[in-house]
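A common beginner's mistake is to predict each chain separately and then try to dock the pieces by hand. The better habit, illustrated here, is to supply every component at once so that their relative placement is modeled jointly.
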Amino acid sequence: MTPVQADLYPSRQCAEPRWQERLDPVVHRQDLDNAPIAAELIARFERDGYVVLPKVFSAAEVAVFRRELERMLADEAVVASGKTIQEPDSGAVRSVFDIHRDNPLFARVARDERIAGIARFILGGDLYVHQSRLNFKPGFDGKEFYWHSDFETWHVEDGMPRMRALSCSILLTDNQAHNGPLLLMPGSHRQYIHCVGATPENHYAQSLRRQEVGVPDQVSLSELAASHGIDSAIGPAGSVVLFDCNIMHGSNGNITPDARSNLFYVYNHVGNAVQAPFCEQSPRPPFVAERRDFRALDIQPQRYI
Amino acid sequence: MTPVQADLYPSRQCAEPRWQERLDPVVHRQDLDNAPIAAELIARFERDGYVVLPKVFSAAEVAVFRRELERMLADEAVVASGKTIQEPDSGAVRSVFDIHRDNPLFARVARDERIAGIARFILGGDLYVHQSRLNFKPGFDGKEFYWHSDFETWHVEDGMPRMRALSCSILLTDNQAHNGPLLLMPGSHRQYIHCVGATPENHYAQSLRRQEVGVPDQVSLSELAASHGIDSAIGPAGSVVLFDCNIMHGSNGNITPDARSNLFYVYNHVGNAVQAPFCEQSPRPPFVAERRDFRALDIQPQRYI
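With all components supplied together, the output reads:
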């Protein structure tokens, strides 16, 4: 496959890192007073590249989600689906992908107006799910996840043309300062860092565990952190973290006894559907990066009791 | 060597973990009004097992210490001393031991009234340095350090009879929530957890990098965390963290660009000097656990400009 569109965000093509300004809006609507949440929160998303919405889901709803999570982690059909990330040693399931298609409950969550409605406002139109997953990060030896921009990977490896996507993480456990919360550099979504190095074949199978290509250089990260600082996304179970596709983020490991789990949906504007990857490799499989169905989500109010 | 004293804190001797109450006082003086710091801070140390004292050392003094740290990390004689911990891959120095003997500047710091004077009050009498080191934890891939009680190791591997020791960490960099600060379970110093498993020979050479024996079981850690919570020792450079020998502590890794360094002194009461280890192995070498000189420190005011 070859790109039909010019590569406006090249990466992994040069021996030296480069920075460029973001070419796309962060919030695609101007009429903030019509937003489904306070205009101030949308403005904060625009400025910082993320926002934490406390307790969007009730404790009872979180309990429903967690029961389904526990069922799935123990379900042999899920383990055998080939759509999971497992621990190299124990085989324990850490992530299950494609839940917006395979799991009826979590497919409804993807269309939930309380989250997808906000994403639709920010991205200015109809959406589809580019990626979905259930994440389970155990206590005691939760692994770190190094700094990255999601968009860099989605662009280079999946062929997402422009920055018109965002991630939505629904916290199923309390996220505290000490148990490896999402770390973000507020405002870093306005710069795009061209990473160094070419993409190896089948990079995804390894990079979802530990990324080594598509990783920003240490000098760029130090500059970004010095100018933007580092914040963490902390909140009780049921809270939602919305973050822009290009914000620099990562997480430290977790030695605390507290496991962390979340539901994760990436919303992409239907006009920004993926094309051929902007690298020499085949695209990642569709359970990691949707390319089977770009139809607009039917966003509706949902309840789960 | 065989212990001349009964083993009041057995560990690594049974197949099942056991808990016991601490047999020793935390603060060995009653006259808190005579303490060199506010009585309230001493009371907090007794209750929580640690206390953070902000900016005990001035920015100018921290600068002096950091210059010496940088000189040492680059000093081939230091690297060749055999008293360092180095990265397995790069050989970069991460810790230098025995600085209370080998380094004139840091030997003075060990006797500094601002820290040793407080330790002398808490431990109720004359002190010597059981262990000293300079730690350098790099940014981007600082490793985690798993939960442990220092006393468990000092008792079993070094032969420290009783809980009458404390650690003093002088922060040479800002410690923030995100760059892998010391995590502590406040109040956990009142229970002693008997760990499972026997001590292998020359355990120290590996355990200083990554501990696997002398590690509490996950059930005990979960119970401790549930009843005590987890706090982090955060403060600007120049601050001092004092913590009891038996408090449960550890640290997460650090993906942030901010390196962390500190000076670390363990003070032990002269009446609690180490004897034969409470295990079947030879004691750890004296640069890790002092057994050459138990004479009382000459504690004096110090300035470093």
